[in-house]
Design brief:
Blueprint (H helix, E strand, L loop, with lengths): L30 E2 L8 E5 L5 E4 L20 E7 L4
Antiparallel strand pairs: 1-4, 2-3, 2-4
This protein binds zinc ion.
The site of zinc ion (ZN) has 7 residues, from loops.
Length: 85
């Protein structure tokens, strides 16, 4: 989980997924390895819980860019969307 302080918490805004201004199921989708990042933010690996920051338009890590010791499946879910121009 991303860490924050009492002071920095003021910069977080709860978003209702169904009312996201960006449309689609941004928060419920598990994005595959090397696919295009839909929105800038923090993403969590569904297999191991590792977190990454990624910018919109970039690609998620390739198959050899994020590996597990076991056969855990790698996919990325949005944890925090950033307000990035
Ligand atoms: Zn992982």
């Amino acid at each position: 989980m991303p860490y924050f302080t009492k002071e920095s918490a003021q910069h977080f805004v709860e978003e209702t997924p169904s009312r996201s201004v960006l449309g689609g199921d941004l928060w419920g989708t598990a994005y595959p390895v090397a696919s295009e990042v839909p929105v800038s933010g923090i993403y969590r690996c569904t297999g191991c819980g590792d977190e990454i920051t990624s910018n919109r338009g970039d690609r998620f890590p390739p198959q050899n860019g994020h590996q597990h010791n076991t056969m855990l499946h790698v996919a990325w879910k949005l944890v925090a969307r950033t307000k990035t121009k």
